[in-house]
Model the fold of this input.
Amino acid sequence: MARVLVTGASDGLGRALALALAAQGHELVLHGRHPERLAEVAQATGAVALQADLADQAATRRLAAEVADRYDTLDVLVNNAAVGFGAPGAPRELTGDGIELRLAVNYLAPYLLSRLLLPMLRKPARARIVNVASIGQADIDLDDLMMAHGYDGIRAYRRAKLAMICDTFDLAAQLAGTGVTVNCLHPATLMPTTLVKVAQFAPVSTLEQGLRATLRLVVDPALDGVTGAYFDGEREERVRAQAYDPAFRAALAARAAALTDS
Done:
């Protein structure tokens, strides 16, 4: 039995993952932004429910502190919470911290949460960080990280997901040999979730396909020791070239550290 923290567990893939992990007997800590939906899935899984808006860095820090107050160790962190493409033509949004919304939730929140929880993840002999990324990626312009010019919700989402992949590779390298592995995946394409419905896209994959791929990264013993990998479903694949450029990744990481005061 593992202790698993899943962010974005009140709906969609996160909810399905929570139900599947509970059925396997794992101890769950579930994060969500919507109190009622979070309470429902927590009751169904016997999990501890922790509500937070990950667009707010102070709330992200409080979430990490609450987890640390409750537990000494953590076996798996699943960074699943995300803001999708948005409705067609929706305008650019900034968080209360002054950060473009998709960058804040899809990249900076998992960047910060992973680092805040690292002391807990280092305590077991083995632990995993699983980042739910996307096959939809777009090159990142470090000179316009907030997309103040030519904003598009789909491109903002894709840029943030590539940034998450870059951080996966960085953190995996930093934690090599510690017993903590860090991997990311594109679970499935356009599953029937709220994010896809809001964007007015027709579903392509089933939720079950995405669940199977994600559950594998969380619990499959065959992946013990596998780190710094990106999976498209259950296949290890390559991503955009920026993610393999050490100088670019270092520059991006420096921006993330500055934006999160970490």
Notes: The mean pLDDT is 94.
